[in-house]
Amino acid sequence: MAHQFPRTTLEQWRVLQAIVEYGSYAQAAKALFRSQSSVSYAVARLQEELGVTLLSPCGRKMCLTPCGEALLHDALLLLEDSLYLEQRAQSPAGLWEAQVNLLVDMLLPRAVLQTALRSFCSQCPYSSLQLQEEFNGNSLSLVERGQVDVAVLARVPNGHSGQPLMHSDSVAVAASSHPLCQNIHALGSHELKKYPQITLNHMASLARPRGHAPLPGNLSVSTLGSAVELVSQGLGYAWLPEHAVADALAKGTMRLLALKSGQRRSMELYLLLPAGERSGPASRVLAQALQAAV
């Protein structure tokens, strides 16, 4: 089947837009730096190709017919898309990625992430960003499958290199009304075992000694928000990222547990560009924005 090509041109639609915008053929010709005859001819050809009347006299001005109004509305979308392509081609961003896939561990403070994203959006207006936050251990496989352009992770997958970005602290907390917060003595493992511990799926293995099964009654959830909510409701204690519970600690609805040891756990977060030297310019801008935000 032969390909069909449009009989009208974007130039003809731009001329029609100018006539409506400036009110007459003469004014449109002046604005477009063209002769009035060429403007008239462009609209005449447009109407001839479409087989419809687009303009009609309206006093001293030329106004769109109902059909012309509907068609020009759609044509303006095409003009905007064409202008976007030209602007992109004329800028360095014309060679940049259309989309950057970012994967971050929930340990990354929200303030750091938001600052980096604002910087990225201002520097890369032609690149969209797909953000994914991982809590269930699938992050390493996503990197290994080449589905991530930039990553901030607590572990570096085999075969990849990561640059230390920052330390992120998790703290032992419980609701202020929880029995563990009423104890005046420093808490040890014996006291903690009496109550459910809430863990994120991907941190569950880090929360217990190697070779030990999960303790009965413990709760494992897949999102940071769920963990914070369950702790707030007094359903258990947890080690949670300090940035996620800072407001609750400040308001007094949560308290740090007075542990004999291990109240604070620090982990290194690493910045990865999985494609290495083949990483695109937008990916590099995002990586630099993350570094600057720390």
Automatic annotation (TrEMBL):
Signal peptide: none annotated. CDD domains: PBP2_LTTR_substrate. Keywords: DNA-binding, Transcription, Transcription regulation. Pfam families: HTH_1, LysR_substrate. The keyword Transcription applies. Residues 8-65 form the HTH lysR-type domain. Gene3D superfamilies: 3.40.190.290, Winged helix-like DNA-binding domain superfamily/Winged helix DNA-binding domain (1.10.10.10). Belongs to the LysR transcriptional regulatory family. This is LysR family transcriptional regulator.
